[in-house]
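Fold sample X.
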Amino acid sequence: MYFEDRGQGEAVLLLHGWGGSITDLDRLRQALGEGFRVVAADLPGCGRSEPRTYTADFYNEDAAAFLGLLDRLGIGAAHLVGFSDGGEVALLMAALAPGRALSVVAWGAAGQIVEPAEGFGPLERLLDEPSEQLLPLAAYLAEAYGPERARAMAAGWGGALRDLVAAGGDISLSRAAAITCPVLLVVGSDDPYCPAAAVQELAEAIPRSRFLELENVGHDVHLAAPSVLTGVVLDWLDGH
């Protein structure tokens, strides 16, 4: 697993979304670096981390891997900040090991997988039959990883999500009551992958949570409203 460890102060573990890398969150990482020790890591199978096989249990596998990374770095507890799959992993870490999370900030994450109307086929065939909505992602993956690896990544991830939904779709929602740290859940009102209603359901199940919906923003809040998100995260961490 590839990671970078910079700065001093309370630790922040920063996790990007599926298919991306730590560079996706460079703006936020730079802002956090002024007052925190920031550990930015590439998700297993993404960025500069080694390729992996996706199973229906991959979120649990990743949560365990990042708890192990904190152990390796001698970090007892950290703020967990993540986008999409990175946010799902952060929430699951807080549920599985409550004492390790000082707080959680997640956007584009709902503690469960909601099957899209078109199913998971478009994700599994992303490189060969990209929809208009997913065309930018397909182009990015092909350029970043090469067509062969990108094709395997998309097929494996989409298949794992399909299996996860068949098993009920739960990631951390059923364990929400075990998340004892303060949690901020951010969602774009126009997010097609993570409906605001699902995020609000998770927020209502977490004892110390705050729900924030940003109008006219989609899934990639850090790209659509970078200044707003950076301000929200900094204000949250300063207050916790």
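Fold sample Y, listed below.
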Amino acid sequence: MPPSPEIRITVLGSGTSVGVPTIGCRCKVCLSQDPRDKRLRPSILIRFEGRMVLVDAAPDFRAQALRFGIDRLDAILLTHSHADHVLGLDDVRPFNYMQKEVIPLFGSPQTLNDVRRRFDYIFNGAASQSSRPKLDCRGFDESGFELFGLPFLPVRLSHGDGVAWGFRFGPAAYLTDHSDIPGESMEKLNDLDVLFLDGLRYKPHPTHSTVQRSLGYVERLKPRRTFLTHICHDLGHARAESLLPEHVRLAYDGLEIVVEAG
């Protein structure tokens, strides 16, 4: 039999909403010279079968695209509509120019409604002398959807009092913003090779998971490899990682992970 297609995941940003270093902060992590402590806002790029799928368009997307040599975009998936996950949408315009096509934008109905309000100039159809992104909004539900032959399964997450979405694709799942993972969603996360989880900090937070809470999810789900992301300046990479089990690591900007699609 031919080998299973390869999925390559690149972490474009592993930081929290304000990034690390945090503006004006003089703490040890913000002053760290370890490049793994330099964290842009959270996002990943999924590459498979010659396609590139972006999960979240962070405010740092332009810098991320230049740093990691992103030269095309075939689709964008949004986990939710918070600023640190959508404010880079305007920077997809060069891909429209190069590809001469509209880019599909996937989100829950609520997320897409929020995006249409926030980026009214993109979607209102009014005449404009300025360029604007060309995006085709496509709502999803929990039954999932397929992109270029690869199934994507949305995973509902509690994000404080709100809802965010993770995505399972093949043997990998990316869950970036969650304070809790509901039981019915846990059932979608069995038999994983790679799992990304929110690991904001050690102290409790009303809308994000702690390191210890996420380790509890790891114990229950037993993925082969886990990476914590959406990390704030409370965690210095080297020290925090030294305290984790061997199969749990901190994500960092530029991390690349390969899984087999089959």
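Sample Y note: The radius of gyration is 18 Å.
Also: The mean pLDDT is 96.
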